[in-house]
Write a structure and sequence with these properties.
The chain starts with 6 loop residues before the first strand and ends in a 5-residue tail after the last helix. The chain has a 5-stranded mixed β-sheet, sandwiched between helices. The chain has helices spanning 39-56, 73-94, 103-111, 118-126, 133-148; strands spanning 7-12, 16-22, 26-33, 62-66, 97-101. It contains 5 helices and 5 strands; from the N terminus they run βββαβαβααα. The protein is 48% helix and 20% strand. It is an alpha/beta fold.
Length: 153
C-alpha cells in the first residue's frame, strides 16, 4: 500500500502558476506564466493549465494550494481570484480533495523556518532539483500538505 498520496501542490500568484507533483518525493515541477492583461483572462489561463496538469497526472489524489497572503490588498485580491478559480475547478470538475497551506507552514516544511525568504526557499528547493520562485514555493506547499494528509486503508 502506498502511504504517500500523490499531491499536486500549487503556488499561484496573479501572473504565474508554480506546481510540484509530490508523493514522498518530487516527481515533477514547473512554472507557467498566466497570459492576459486582465484578471479574468489570467484566471481562465490558470484553469486551463490546471486541467492540463490533472490530465497529465491522473494519479493526483489531492490538490494543495498556498493560501493567498500579501501585505497590500492590490496584490492579494488578484491572487485570491486566481486561487479561487483553481479551487473551484478542482472541486467542481474533478471532485478531488484539496487543502490550503499557509505560507509560513510551507516555508517551515521546506526550510525549517516559517519566516524564510524567497532566496532561502529557492536554495532549499534545489536539493530536490527544483528551480524557480513559484515552483520552489510549491515544493514547500507539497511537503506541508504531505504532513497534513493521512492515507487510511
Amino acid at each position: 500500500m502506498n502511504t504517500h498520496p500523490t499531491i499536486l501542490a500549487l503556488d499561484a500568484s496573479s501572473t504565474t502558476l508554480g506546481y510540484c507533483l509530490y508523493a514522498g518525493a518530487v516527481l515533477a515541477h514547473g512554472e507557467h506564466k498566466l497570459a492576459g492583461g486582465d484578471i479574468a483572462t489570467r484566471c481562465q489561463t490558470a484553469r486551463d493549465i490546471l486541467r492540463m496538469l490533472l490530465g497529465r497526472y491522473p494519479e493526483v489524489a489531492v490538490v494543495a494550494i498556498e493560501s493567498p497572503v500579501a501585505l497590500h490588498a492590490k496584490a492579494v485580491i488578484p491572487q485570491a481570484r486566481v486561487s479561487g478559480a483553481l479551487l473551484g475547478l478542482v472541486a467542481e470538475r474533478f471532485g478531488l480533495l484539496w487543502c490550503e497551506v499557509p505560507p509560513a507552514q510551507a516555508k517551515r516544511a521546506l526550510t525549517g523556518h516559517g519566516n524564510a525568504d524567497k532566496p532561502a526557499m529557492q536554495r532549499a528547493a534545489l536539493v530536490y532539483g527544483v528551480t524557480g520562485e513559484h515552483a520552489s514555493d510549491a515544493v514547500g506547499v507539497a511537503k506541508a500538505a504531505a504532513g497534513m494528509i493521512r492515507v487510511v486503508a
